[in-house]
Amino acid sequence: MAETGIEERTEKVVSPVLESLGMEFVDVEFRREQTGWVLRLYIDKEGGITLDDCSRVGRELGTLLDIESYIDRSYSLEVSSPGLTRPLKKLKDFEKFIDHPAKIKLYSATNGKKSFLATIKGVDGDEINLDIDGEEKKIKISDIAKANLEFIQEG
Fold this sequence. Notes:
Structural class: alpha+beta
Number of strands: 8
CATH architecture of the largest domain: 2-Layer Sandwich
Strand content: 35-45%
Order of helices and strands: HEEHEHEEEEE
Number of helices: 3
CATH topology of the largest domain: GMP Synthetase, Chain A, domain 3
Largest sheet: 5 strands, antiparallel
Radius of gyration: 17 Å
Distance between the termini: 48 Å
CATH class of the largest domain: Alpha Beta
């Protein structure tokens, strides 16, 4: 199974388990690294993720993924918090972080820019309302190649 197929299948398999534990699926990566293949899950919950949460989820999902058996090579499972610059992939991610800064990369340039920093102002249908240098713009979520929260240190 190709890496993207593994990532999509993993999201479908693990999301219900995470929801039952009061946690949220954020992202998944399946990639070859120096030590071999790694399936890396990013999870979150209200108030943030602890090391104990990651360990518990790793144990529960490790068994489930072994039973599901759709990954045709050996791999290591890692469970992590998404960190300060968490990815924004779904409309609900953007809704959750209204008034937060984000680094946005588009598939194709708009107004000569393909990558920019913006403040999330809201969600309207399939469009994200952004404040880009004081100017309000609407961008379809399907036009966004990648988006991450941007951590800006005060002072």
